[in-house]
Amino acid sequence: MGTESYTYMGRSFNEFTINDDSTSSAFSDCNSDRSGEFATTSSQSRRLIIACASEDSDDLIRQLVSDLHSSSIEEQKQAAMEIRLIAKNKPENRIKIAKAGAIKPLISLVSSQDLQLQEYGVTAILNLSLCDENKELIASAGAIKPLVRALNSGTSTAKENSACALLRLAQVEGNKAAIGRSGAIPLLVNLLGSGGIRGKKDASTALYTLCTVKENKMRAVKAGIMKVLVELMADFESNMVDKSAYVVSVLVSVPEAKTALVEEGGVPVLVEIVEVGSQRQKEIAAVILLQICDDSVTYRTMVAREGAIPPLVALTQSGTNRAKQKAEKLIELLRQPRSTRTTTSEIVLA
Fold first, then answer.
1. pLDDT of 63 strictly over 90
2. Where does the record locate the signal sequence feature (predicted)?
3. What one-character DSSP code corresponds to residue 338?
4. Buried b / exposed e across 160-173, counting CB within 10 Å, b at 16+?
């Protein structure tokens, strides 16, 4: 955690805080940007301190929104930076900034060819999206496609913050399909596979939310998400095992995802997680194995051959209540006699 401290008129301000993602949480919260504070001169810092401490920041907000329309890129950058900061550190300002008309000009900045200006615009939009009242306004103002473009070609920070902003917009159910249709899913899969640790966490969170919609599940599978997820689940040093497994658990409700998971070597990885993972990891791995075995004799045989029954028995004795229930049900399935009725697809996979 990093904190910017300021003193003004004998009063100390420690509100400019960067919260690192908690590794104890299943997913990143995407509660605000964590890209660090922008360098400011002492006079600019003083103005920001007053704005964050004051009960009335309306005049400053109106001036900043006006500056967003400036013909000077530097003035636009400064305005977007300050809007980003006062939206980040004082929740009440998020509604004020939106009502002052900042959303549309900020979206224009997200489409800027100047990568730094684009990054500032993305980050300001992210911080405004933390307010539930602003999510609909941001989406209806046309933010989704520019955010997806930034996710594709922006700086690493812009990509991460675009993923977070899209996650926030996806918390409105009606936006999920629109975000998927805009081309976000393959880009999030790419960020999940090749981004830094924060990018991976933010991408997994966004994908988990977006893939509650069936058409987005299909897009993710077509984009090769299962290969990425299996690799992350297999890497116990990545801090991504449980996050990746949760995304898998959402996807495997569609047959194509089950097939892809098995083809990418997911079964032995999941069995290993049940054996040596944390309690939470064991539970979600058992849930996934039960999902893929529930209606497939072939998959049950594969899971049993990987030696799943002993660690599942151990889980029934030491796991959480939910883990015990899932493990018991899965053991019962695995111990059932093999049916003589096997589908053509199962013969191919056997």
1. yes
2. none
3. P
4. bbbbbbbbbbbeee
